[in-house]
Specification:
The complex is a heterodimer of chains A (113) and B (109). With 113 residues, chain A is mostly beta strands. Chain A contains no helices and eleven strands. Chain A has strands at residues 5-7, 10-13, 19-24, 31-38, 42-50, 53-57, 64-68, 74-78, 87-94, 103-104, 108-112. In chain A, the strands form two sheets. In chain A, strands 2, 4, 5, 6, 9, 10 and 11 form a seven-stranded mixed sheet that branches. In chain A, strands 1-3-8-7 form a four-stranded antiparallel sheet, with no helix packed on it. In chain A, strand 7 (64-68) and strand 8 (74-78) form a beta hairpin. The termini of chain A are far apart. By secondary structure, chain B is an all-beta fold. Chain B is built from no helices and eleven strands. Chain B has strands at 5-7, 10-14, 19-24, 32-37, 44-49, 55-58, 61-65, 71-76, 85-93, 96-99, 103-108. In chain B, the strands form two sheets. In chain B, strands 2, 4, 5, 9, 10 and 11 form a six-stranded mixed sheet that branches. In chain B, strands 1-3-8-7-6 form a five-stranded antiparallel sheet, with no helix packed on it. In chain B, a hairpin with a 6-residue loop joins strand 4 and strand 5. The radius of gyration of chain B is 13 Å and the shape is globular. Chain B starts with a strand and ends with a strand. In chain B, 34% of the residues are buried. The chains are: A mainly beta (113), B mainly beta (109).
């Protein structure tokens, strides 16, 4: 069974631009969660999507948004990029929503210049 | 306030040595998970401990959940360079997982 895939793996943007990241969950998994990982803050929860609906949200500004499609694939968008948005963005899929066992993708490394 | 504190933050040891890393909290968790993350990759789940006092072994790795379910430890016997990585503990909190601060381990050949 294929694992979680994320595209692109690396991205370089400049301040003020926007970016869209993509995540394909494991087949049969309906929940996708997004995390931001930085050296200073560690792994922090952004939001979770289940059945095309955002179910839970972490403490991030509205510039961070996402959506989920009917095939469970998810996209995350960050608008008006700031230098501090440079991070590894990870998505994780699970069968059920909430605190179910998660399987992580390899991440997208975003660098904001 | 970090709910899950891990120690040590960094650890560099020689191949063949033993080591223990800790995950501590002042809160009770229904379960705790341990992940290993290698550079450029996402975290990979190693184990989930559920019962207070539970001990699980995964080859040279031994995981223990504290009796009060507030802490956990990971012991590696005869560490190998392939054990190098970031070790993260995580616990469920309502609708999401809280991750610990991480222990970055480097095993030198």
């Amino acid at each position: 069974k294929a694992g979680v895939t994320q595209t692109p793996r690396y991205l370089i943007k400049t301040r003020g631009q926007q970016v869209t990241l993509s995540c394909s969950p494991i087949s049969g998994h309906r929940s996708v969660s997004w995390y931001q990982q930085t050296p200073g803050q560690g792994l922090q929860f952004l939001f979770e999507y289940f059945s095309e609906t955002q179910r839970n949200k972490g403490n991030f500004p509205g510039r961070f948004s996402g959506r989920q499609f009917s095939n469970s694939r998810s996209e995350m968008n960050v608008s008006t990029l700031e230098l501090g948005d440079s991070a590894l963005y990870l998505c994780a899929s699970s069968r059920r929503e909430g605190a179910d066992t998660q399987y992580f993708g390899p991440g997208t490394r975003l660098t904001v210049l | 306030t970090q709910l899950l504190e891990q120690s040590p933050q960094f650890l560099s040891i020689q191949e063949g040595e033993n080591l223990t890393v800790y995950c501590n909290s002042s809160s009770v968790f229904s379960s705790l998970q341990w992940y290993r993350q290698e550079p450029g990759e996402g975290p990979v789940l190693l184990v989930t401990v559920v019962t207070g006092g539970e001990v699980k072994k995964l080859k040279r790795l031994t995981f223990q959940f504290g009796d009060a379910r507030k802490d956990s430890s990971l012991h590696i016997t005869a560490a190998q360079p392939g054990d190098t990585g970031l070790y993260l503990c995580a616990g469920p909190r309502t609708y999401k997982y809280i991750f610990g601060t991480g222990t970055r381990l480097k095993v030198l050949a």
